[in-house]
Amino acid sequence: MHAWPASEVPALPGKGRDLQIHDTATQGTITLAPGPVARIYVCGITPYDATHIGHAATYNAFDLVQRVWLDTKRQVIYVQNVTDVDDPLLERALRDNQDWTELAERETALFREDMTALRMLPPQHYIGAVEAIPGIVPLVERLRDAGAAYELDGDVYFSVESDPNFGKVSNLDAEAMRLLSAERGGDPDRAGKKNPLDPMLWMAARPGEPSWDGGSLGRGRPGWHIECVAIALDHLGMTFDIQGGGSDLAFPHHEMGASHAQVLTGEFPMAKAYVHAGMVALHGEKMSKSKGNLVFVSALRRAGVDPAAIRLALLSHHYRADWEWTDAVLAEAVARLERWRAAVSRPDGIPADDLVEEVREALSNDLDAPAALAAVDRWVERQLVSDGDDESAPGLVSRTVDALLGVAL
């Protein structure tokens, strides 16, 4: 599966700072100082109802991570999956009387278009669940043969009790886990499971549903968590720098994936930092496909909204915060974009060397994009009322905003 084209990232004078970021597992801020190559895995979309603002906010956060690392002169290996076969996708296709593969392909293509318009840097490895199946089957077989998985009416389940570190990503108690499992695709009440929290690794073929050859597992399709594990281990190995996604993925998805990987490899942890973006609401409720209260990037673009303004609206909120999309949020972003473009369109201006370091400092401090925007705002305000004579300043500000914030002025 191919990703989307990369926009050029301008080089800035000097060198960026190491990233300090909030880690869900330790509930604290840690400093990540990778070697020459930084490694990040971000969970991708299930391709229906793409791309809503909640999606965009999540991928914007991890785009900033890439930009901070690139500014430190590191190479970045970024991996993202597409869950192009799963119950919600099949249910949507059935509801709308569509072929599920056509629905997945169309929505994935739309997601690529939106990511390109928003100048999100693409992953080097963009992998669909279906194409990953040949690598998933051997992992499930290994877990089963090691006694870490068991069969139940043809399905294969992972035993959470096989991982002594289970629970160390989300730090939730058993009752909270059970409630979230039921809400987020698990089946804690299924009879015959060894532990209600045990997640499915391989679903035996169901009538009328797609299935693939699973070798000794029989025909079927993979569970949700093992999909990402197979892709991450294949392209990043263990103890990569960041496992990322929305805050609703901390449990069960990232918790279960970490346990799968840790039992398979005997290593801990799967990732050095588990980083989660906040949820975006509309009309007082979290944007969700089930509620249908979604604002789509493609609809905003069709309405003539500049993608740079959409990106500024996302950047105006800290990535870990839960926030609400409103017309006022977008209007403020449109006005900010106009001011910034007016300021850098002048032939010369006030010096901007300090601004570069202010933006770097803000982003290295747990991706504090609102602080970075405020720093640019201060420069813009002075620029619009001053008679500076630094001919390089407007260009330097434009490159800084592009390189570190992904906004083209």
Structure, explained:
- This protein has 409 residues and is of the alpha/beta class.
- It has 2 domains: 19-286, HUPs (Rossmann fold), CATH 3.40.50; 305-405, Four Helix Bundle (Hemerythrin (Met), subunit A) (Up-down Bundle), CATH 1.20.120.
- 43% of the residues lie in helices and 16% in strands.
- It is built from 13 helices and 14 strands.
- A 5-stranded parallel beta sheet has the order 5-4-3-10-11, sandwiched between helices. Strands 6-7-8-9 form a 4-stranded antiparallel beta sheet. The chain has a 3-stranded mixed beta sheet with strand order 13-12-14, with helices on one face.
- Helix 7 links the parallel strand 10 and strand 11.
- Helix 4 (129-145) crosses helix 6 (224-235), helix 6 (224-235) packs across helix 7 (250-265) and helix 9 packs across helix 10 (327-344).
What is the compact description of this entry?
This protein folds into 2 domains: 19-286, Rossmann fold (3-Layer(aba) Sandwich), CATH 3.40.50; 305-405, Four Helix Bundle (Hemerythrin (Met), subunit A). The strands form 4 sheets. A 5-stranded parallel β-sheet has the order 5-4-3-10-11, sandwiched between helices.
